[in-house]
Write a sequence for this structure.
């Protein structure tokens, strides 16, 4: 109601509308059919077992599988991951190259994003496999690691 009232006072109109697939809307290219499956369980062993079975049944070219915490995993189209999203945003929409991009992640679903960026930062509380591929390891979330990374790389 407050937004509508302000719009009437200022004479502005809303141009909001349903756009469907955002990437397709922005680029005019056909949409990639993407389905996302989240598997959740309070039993980490159930999630691990299901993830291992899917990894044996499908190649990375058929199905993208990632786990960000031990109690759930994600399965998506193989081209649907944070790295591809950051690359699309940087190169297609912002005309940037990878070496002009910094990403910060804290788990396995951030691997591709960290690998893509010129500066890939892992949080201090990230698993060792994530830290291993990062250019720099920030302090933990509790120690304001994101602010530390921004200060270290972007605000000299």
């Amino acid at each position: 109601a407050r937004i509508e009232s302000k719009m009437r006072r200022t004479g502005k109109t809303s141009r909001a509308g349903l756009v469907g697939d955002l990437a397709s809307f922005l680029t005019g290219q056909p949409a990639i059919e993407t389905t996302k499956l989240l598997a959740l369980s309070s039993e980490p062993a159930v999630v691990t077992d299901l993830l291992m079975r899917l990894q044996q049944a499908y190649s990375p070219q058929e199905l993208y599988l990632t786990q960000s915490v031990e109690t759930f995993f994600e399965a998506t189209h193989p081209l649907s991951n944070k790295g591809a999203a950051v690359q699309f945003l940087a190169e297609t929409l912002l005309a940037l190259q990878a070496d002009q991009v910094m990403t910060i992640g804290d788990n396995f679903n951030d691997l591709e994003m960290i690998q893509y960026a010129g500066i890939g930062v892992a949080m201090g509380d990230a698993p060792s496999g994530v830290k291993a591929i990062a250019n720099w390891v920030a302090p933990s979330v509790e120690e304001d690691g994101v602010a530390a990374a921004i200060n270290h790389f972007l605000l000299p």
Notes: The longest strand covers residues 64-69.
